[in-house]
């Protein structure tokens, strides 16, 4: 029975990760199409019907590009920090309270805040490990921006947790069945929306 539960969890995670990757690819396509129509051009429309195959060709192009090896970089940190950052961003998606939720996180909000704050260190590591002054400056700038928006995001999340007095995201969904917290805390939800977009 325990082995079957473990297999179900692994299959659920694989389906979740594949769905997230395909969803992000097509959201990028949607963004490019909207930007194209704003600029009075068609956007990506060559591959497939209305450019539907464009995300897959972008992925093939990304993986078939030539690898560049920087002479003075710290090789392992330089190549593994984006991989770890990508893995951590995928780990956050496990927290979303689906109806087929695989794992019950009692401290899900703390896990979310921990994963987002680890991403800050990996961003700094990616800039530092290239041993280029411009990359370090770009990494520090991105680090400062990430921290500044992350603080407001964490404080707004904590203020909504006072209404449920729990760190479980399933309880957060349960308490919003009658009225959404977005309407109860409308100014805070607009600030949280802008923080998440940034």
Automatic annotation (TrEMBL):
Protein keywords: Membrane, Mitochondrion, Mitochondrion inner membrane, NAD, Transmembrane, Transmembrane helix, Transport, Ubiquinone
EC number: 7.1.1.2
GO MF, one annotated term: NADH dehydrogenase (ubiquinone) activity
Biological process annotations from GO: aerobic respiration
Protein localization: Mitochondrion inner membrane
Primary residence: mitochondrion
Recorded superkingdom: Eukaryota
Enzyme class: translocase
Catalytic activity, reaction form: a ubiquinone + NADH + 5 H(+)(in) = a ubiquinol + NAD(+) + 4 H(+)(out)
InterPro entries: NADH_UbQ_OxRdtase_su1/FPO, NADH_UbQ_OxRdtase_su1_CS
GO CC terms of this entry: mitochondrial inner membrane
Record membrane topology: Multi-pass membrane protein
Transmembrane segments: 6-27, 76-96, 103-127, 147-167, 179-197
Function: Core subunit of the mitochondrial membrane respiratory chain NADH dehydrogenase (Complex I) that is believed to belong to the minimal assembly required for catalysis. Complex I functions in the transfer of electrons from NADH to the respiratory chain. The immediate electron acceptor for the enzyme is believed to be ubiquinone.
Sequence similarity: Belongs to the complex I subunit 1 family.
Name listed for the protein in its UniProt record: NADH-ubiquinone oxidoreductase chain 1
Gene that produces this protein: ND1
